[in-house]
Amino acid sequence: MDFWNNFWNIIWLFFWSFAFIAYLFALFAIISDLFRDHKLNGWWKALWIIFLIFVPFLTALVYLIARGPGMAERSQKEARQVQQSTDAYIRQVATSSPSDEIAKAKALLDAGTITPEEFAHLKSVALGHQAAAGAHAAPAAPAAPSAPSAPTPPPAAPTA
After folding, report:
1. Which of 21, 108, 153, 154 lies 20 to 30 Å from 4 when distance is taken between CA atoms?
2. Percent of residues in the chain assigned helix, strand, coil, to nearest 5
3. Residue from 62, 76, 79 nearest 26 by CA
4. What are the DSSP calls for 38-54, one per residue?
5. Cα–Cα distance for residue pair 68/71, rounded to 1 Å
6. pLDDT single digits (tens) 78-137
7. What is the pLDDT of residues 99-115, one digit of tens each?
8. What does the DSSP assignment read for 97-150?
9. 130, 124 Cβ separation under 8 angstroms
């Protein structure tokens, strides 16, 4: 009988833990929605927060019922704005015209970082022409120095 008593205590512990964590998620969603809503007056926001502190479960339930549709609309509006700003940033960073690429390569050539052959290769790639095999191919970059290797053991003595 002791096993089943402990088993149901563990089940109740999981249930109440789940309920508490779900309440915390709802509480943070409500608080973030309160401060996201620009139409709601500051005094009303303060009143909602006070009620959330002193009568938490009832206030959360009333808020979700009364302001739930507006909460979803504000959340969708914010998600659209974030998506649009992310897309704009990606377009800004990812796109560059062939003239930009050639200008960057020319700056590298002028600085002496690359050779004229490498510049010609970069220019042909930027313009969409693939250089003929070996004609203007960029030379391979020198390999990075490798870590010193362990000394090799001396050869084994021949056995007769």
Report:
1. 21
2. 70, 0, 30
3. 62
4. SSS-HHHHHHHHHHHHH
5. 5
6. 999 999 999 988 887 776 778 888 888 999 999 989 999 999 998 888 888 644 434 444
7. 888 888 999 999 989 99
8. -HHHHHHHHHHHHHHTSS-HHHHHHHHHHHTTPPPPTTTSPPPPPPPPPPPPPP
9. yes
Could you identify the residue written with the tokens 């897309």? 87
Question: 77-105: b or e for each residue (b if 16 or more CB lie within 10 Å)?
Answer: eeeeeeeeeeeeeeeeeeeeeeeeebeeb
Q: How far apart are CA 45 and CA 34, in angstroms?
A: 6
At 2, the pLDDT band (50, 70, 90 cuts) reads confident
Please state whether 75 falls in left (phi above 0), alpha (psi between -120 and 50) or beta: alpha
CB 126 within 8 A of CB 105: yes
As given in the structure block, the two tokens for residue 11 are: 């089940």
Q: Say which DSSP state 72 is in.
A: H
Residue in the structure block whose two tokens are 């659209």: 80
The first and second tokens of residue 152, run together, are 């090799």
